[in-house]
Amino acid sequence: MNAQIPRYIVLSLALVFAAQSAAARQPQQNSGASPALSPRDMQEERAKLFMAEKRYEDAIDAYHELLKSEPKNALLLNMVGIAYLDLSNFEQAQKYFQRSIKADKKYVSAVSNLGMVWYHQKDFRRAIRQYKKAIAIDPRQAGTHANLGFAYYNSNKFPEAAAEFQKAADLDPHIFEHSDRVGVMVQDRTVANHGQFFYMMARVYAQKGDPAHCAAYLRKSMDEGYKDIKNVKTDPAFKDILDDPGVQAVLVLIFPAEQKADAAEPGA
């Protein structure tokens, strides 16, 4: 007698096999595992890690491995330039920024970073010209306006510097609090007179109606011993924020004699 497998068992097995096949075809969505990086992407992450750890020579070697197969990758060439810049090898930094620009003439980070080569060599006139080229490509990069402002500042062109700092702060109110040193655009905040610079920044934020940043920079300017800081009460840039409690707290430190006089008055 030929035994036959019941139809309902056959149907059940078919459903099980179909479910297993579908599961094998679909990615595991709830495993929590990140997609595996390709060997190329792993190498780039390795180079980024070297940059973050300030192991610039190792980073250069890692980027060069990538450049063997991508010799015209503007981002990779730019990163090699940054690594050389951090090693103060300005000749090589210039070479790689120029190669990056040649690979992509609109790559604003490399255009701006080439200006940083001139800036570090105190050729501020050349740096200003280069930063303006970067702004012409993309006027909404806060870092480029900040860089141009510092180049103007170190050229003693203070009104022009203040105007660029204002544009930078308008685009990014926190631009002067962070650095993109490990990113694709380099910034440098070296200035000759810190007290004067901090007072200028206090004016920038006062005109933006940002008393918190204004007070912070006023305090820094005071701590640096800036001799003209007492102009704050008559400077029109500060007139709308002088009554802010945070600014008032700094003014008490700037004008301690007035505070003592107020305390000595009858009924005070």
Number of helices: 13
Proportion in β-strands:
under 5%
- Unreliable residue runs: 1-29
End-to-end separation: 116 Å
Question: What percent of the residues sit in helical stretches (DSSP H or I)?
Answer: 55-70%
Number of DSSP E strands? 0
Main sheet record: none
Structural class: mainly alpha
Mean of all residue-level pLDDT scores = 85
Shape: elongated
SSE pattern, N- to C-terminal: HHHHHHHHHHHHH
The radius of gyration computed from the alpha-carbon positions, rounded to a whole number of angstroms, is 29 Å
What would you say this structure looks like, in words?
The chain has 268 residues and is mainly alpha-helical. It has a domain at 201-262. Helices cover 64% and strands 0% of the residues. The chain contains 13 helices and no strands. The protein has helices spanning 7-25, 39-52, 56-67, 74-86, 90-103, 108-120, 124-137, 142-153, 158-171, 194-207, 211-223, 245-254, 256-264. The N and C termini lie far apart (116 Å).
